[in-house]
Amino acid sequence: MKALIIIDYVNDFVAENGALTCGKPAQVLDDYISELVEDFSKNGNFVAIASDRHPENDVHSPEHGLFPPHCIEGTAGSDLYGKTLERVAKVPAGQLISVDKCRYSAFAGTNLDIKFRERGVTDLYLTGVCTDICVLHTAIDAYNLGYKIFVCEKGVASFNAGAHQFALEHMKNALGASIV
Ligand code: ZN
Prior knowledge:
Layout: E1 2-7, H1 11-14, H2 24-27, H3 30-42, E2 46-52, H4 82-88, E3 96-101, H5 112-118, E4 123-129, H6 131-144, E5 148-157, H7 161-173, E6 178-179
Helix pairs in contact: 3-4, 6-7
């Protein structure tokens, strides 16, 4: 069974006025990610949303001091961006998995692995931002947990083009991911 994972495709990381935005490279993914949601949904596969979410003044987070505050609970910052938000709202509830995360990896401190295993999901298709931070860290955990990894090249982006390229190569060469 396959699942699409949409990692951090939220206003604070994507929208023009987002607190920690990747900007244009992230915004242009919206149509493609929406199409993938449609495909996975129609074909009876799963769609998983893993979005960053922090309490206000999250001093206990290791991200505190590394990054300015972002994706604060109760704000639109951790809501899905654009058309993707509208498309995800149409996914049948039985095919939708949604987790809030407070680390880079979608698996860290969440029940995503259990949800996938209950549903027989073995193949993960990664999309979202940033390729070299949350997407990469999610891929590393997926590798350690034994999932087959596919990275949707037109569905991932970063504010740092060099780091984006490095991450794609690392996922392919060190994690055995297929770049699709
Ligand atoms: Zn965060």
